[in-house]
Design brief:
The chain has about 280 residues and is mainly alpha-helical. About 65% of the residues lie in helices and about 0% in strands. The protein has 2 domains: about 55 residues; about 180 residues, Cytochrome Bc1 Complex, Chain C.
């Protein structure tokens, strides 16, 4: 039987491993696999900790009130809480059905939004966003179009009332403390809808193209020019040039009839969905 020796010349007994130190840069295969597995486990545990911290945060719990359904009970609960299957909560508090508690300010605001949509679509058929034809089209709508004067007046007064009712609705929500958890996300959505209402009213103010509209938009865009950080870009984006003109009218028309109504419709859907998921109207303080 041949004699086996270590690297230093000493006789190695049977069953002993070679005590030769590992060469620099050479790692045994098992050690390499073990290191990779350890790094993989540490990465997985780190991702799990990040996932748990996100799911336990106030923002996540404000967006998703219930966890993912895993059994029959949780699935049934998810179905009952679905806004498309059940528009009203499973339980409605007694104070929520009283008219004097909310005065239906949110419902009136949404109703006025629908009125503005219907009347605005009707007015679109007889209006051309051109500096040479806009004012003439407004006069023709009021004098020649069937129910034109009535439709324009309804559209104008509904716009004023919508701004008024949305503001009152925000005051009512703030007074009753409905901005507190778990409704803070829906409060932010409501603030976005408030500013969207003001902006869509601002864009529609220029469309008649009269002296009041011209100078009101001129003053408003000049005020936007003094906004911090985005003063000059915001003014140029709104005007489409250095002064109020054809580009301004066309941009305000597109914002008024397409961009802002679409944005408001999306946020209204989110607003109704969160009201439903949060258990309906909040209770008094």
């Amino acid at each position: 039987m041949p004699v086996r020796r270590n690297y230093d010349g000493a006789v190695r007994a049977a069953g002993d491993l070679d005590r030769r130190p590992a060469l620099q840069g050479v790692v045994p295969r098992r050690a390499t696999r073990g290191g990779r597995r350890g790094r993989r486990r540490s990465l997985v545990s780190f991702l799990e900790r990040v996932d748990q911290s996100i799911r336990r945060s106030a923002v996540w719990r404000s967006l998703f009130r219930q966890p993912y359904p895993t059994d029959e009970r949780s699935r049934a609960y998810a179905v009952m809480n679905n806004v498309f299957l059940h528009i009203h909560p499973v339980r409605v508090r007694q104070h929520a059905v009283k008219f004097a508690y909310t005065f239906c300010l949110g419902g009136l605001s949404f109703f006025l939004f629908l009125v503005l949509t219907v009347t605005g679509v009707y007015l679109m058929f007889f209006y051309v966003p051109s500096t040479t034809n806009a004012y003439t089209d407004i006069l023709d709508i009021q004098s020649k179009v069937v129910f034109g004067l009535l439709t324009r007046n309804v559209h104008r007064w509904a716009a004023h009332l919508m701004v008024f009712f949305v503001f009152l609705h925000m005051m009512r929500v703030f007074y009753h403390g409905a901005y507190k958890p778990p409704r803070e996300f829906n409060w932010v959505v409501g603030v976005v809808l408030l500013f969207s209402t003001l902006f869509i009213s601002f864009t529609g103010y220029l469309l008649p193209w009269d002296q009041i509209a011209y100078w009101a938009i001129t003053i408003g865009t000049n005020m936007a020019g003094y906004a911090p950080l985005f003063n000059t870009p915001s003014k140029l984006i709104l005007l489409g040039g250095l002064e109020v003109g054809q580009n301004t009218l066309l941009r305000f028309y597109v914002l008024h009839i397409m961009v802002m109504p679409l944005v408001m419709a999306i946020f209204l859907a989110i607003h109704f969905w969160r009201t439903r998921k949060d258990g309906g109207i909040s209770g008094p303080l």
